[in-house]
Design a protein that fits this description.
alpha/beta
Length: 425
């Protein structure tokens, strides 16, 4: 039985259930209603001011969650923000009616935020003025503690003994007014986050991993916003099928035209034109609207005006001079794909093989995913270009240079030092 399984079996950690320990974990208790009922949706400045005052006067950490309309709307903005704090209860805030939550963010400065999968919600929270100074990520905590399933519903059930209803996770949260079942679901998402945080902290401490987790949380909280992605059109699904530069230009033009339409209409790009249709047009290079209409994804349901705008994008790509055509692919910074290492640099391939085996064995022993122990990209980079001097300090400096945290360096550094010195091995 792993440490995480022992936690799940230890019903004393079920802080809101209180069932006595037993040989078999009791069936999870369905959590059907928030403790104080569904809070009203805050959509006015006066109501927001009251929430800010209540949460500023609360005590302890604050549970925070956000709901987006991924797949329905353009971008990743928040359409509902949920909070819960001791002394303040729960709150549901509508960022459409209250687009500036910087006052709430300031009121919570210095307070630990509890989020589940923090990196998913932090960008949209930052956009409305909410940025934590410190946080506790319950999903990441579950990973470090060795739980095999770390979705909110699964980990709440395993640790606290409650079953959360998860049927509304993929709905269109831009809908107004929001249906009551959706609001109940949203309020329940923060209902037990404080209890979950406390139980996971206890388990991490028992395993000797609490300090590691705190380093990870601090790194997330202090990380700057991600820079805009270069050439995002290159991530079009099916791009690997497109080989010729003229065809690649068609992908770029169609992707850009689609993005402009999606942004203007505030709708998910995939609902404007599918990636598969873009790839089909790039491969076929249709000569006119009639030829475009015959391609998959450009069927009879699409209006003439739409078809003409897509054909215009194709024609723009076809008219580009050779010098303006995009290159077939970008060579990312860093080492080549590992599959080519054996031919390009057999010694590096041997280093990587040894390093991967050592990291895998240690991750298994620590009951955590390998990518949380050390990122695969970091291992590849250090193995491809190892320090000139194979000393503990040099390897530690190399790992730190690639963003590894102190605890990761302490755990992985000695293993990589041995793996890098393949001649000595």
């Amino acid at each position: 039985m792993t440490d995480a399984q022992e936690t799940a079996a230890d019903t004393s950690l079920r802080t809101t259930g209180g069932a006595p320990p037993d040989d078999v974990a009791p069936a999870p208790i369905p959590l059907l209603e928030p403790r104080e009922g569904i809070p009203p949706v805050v959509a006015t400045e006066d109501a927001l001011a009251r929430v800010v005052a209540d949460f500023a006067a609360g005590t302890g950490p604050v549970a925070v969650d956000a709901e987006r309309a991924s797949g329905y709307r353009y971008g990743q903005r928040a359409y509902l923000v949920q909070l819960r704090r001791e002394g303040a209860g729960s709150a549901l805030i509508d960022p459409v009616g209250c687009p500036d939550l910087s006052g709430l963010g300031e009121a919570l400065t210095g307070t630990e935020w509890i989020l589940h999968a923090a990196t998913q919600d932090l960008p949209c929270l930052r956009d409305i003025g909410m940025t934590p100074t410190s946080l506790f990520d319950t999903e990441l905590a579950g990973r470090l503690a060795g739980f095999p399933r770390v979705g909110l519903g699964a980990i709440v059930e395993n640790v606290l003994g409650y079953a959360l209803e998860k049927g509304h996770s993929a709905v269109d949260w831009s809908t107004r007014p929001l249906p009551e079942p959706w609001l109940r679901y949203a309020a329940l998402d923060v209902e037990l986050l404080v209890d979950l945080r406390n139980a996971l902290e206890k388990e991490l401490d028992r395993q000797g991993k609490l300090g590691w987790a705190l380093e990870e949380f601090a790194a997330i909280a202090s990380a700057p916003p991600a820079p805009p992605r270069k050439d995002p059109w290159r991530r079009t699904s099916g791009m690997h099928k497109v080989r010729r530069r003229r065809q690649i230009a068609v992908v770029r033009e169609l992707w850009t035209a689609r993005d402009q339409v999606a942004q203007r209409r505030d709708i998910s790009p995939g609902k404007v034109l599918g990636d598969a249709a873009i790839i089909e047009a790039a491969l076929a290079l249709p000569v006119n609207v009639q030829a475009l209409t015959a391609l998959p994804g450009f069927g009879h349901r699409m209006g003439r005006r739409q078809l003409e705008q897509w054909q215009a994008a194709v024609d723009r790509a076809k008219a580009l001079p050779e010098i303006e055509l995009p290159q077939p692919g970008q060579h990312p910074a860093g080492p080549p794909p590992p599959r080519s290492w054996a031919d390009k640099d057999p010694a590096a391939a041997a280093r990587l093989s040894a390093a991967r085996a050592a990291v895998s064995e240690l991750a298994e022993r620590l009951h955590m995913p390998q990518e949380n122990l050390i990122t695969p990209d970091t291992v590849r980079r250090v193995c491809w270009e190892p320090p000139k001097a194979l000393t503990p300090d040099a390897v530690e400096a190399a790992l730190a240079g690639h963003g590894a945290r102190r605890w990761q360096i302490e755990q992985v550094g000695p293993l990589l030092l041995r793996a890098l010195d393949t001649d000595a091995a």
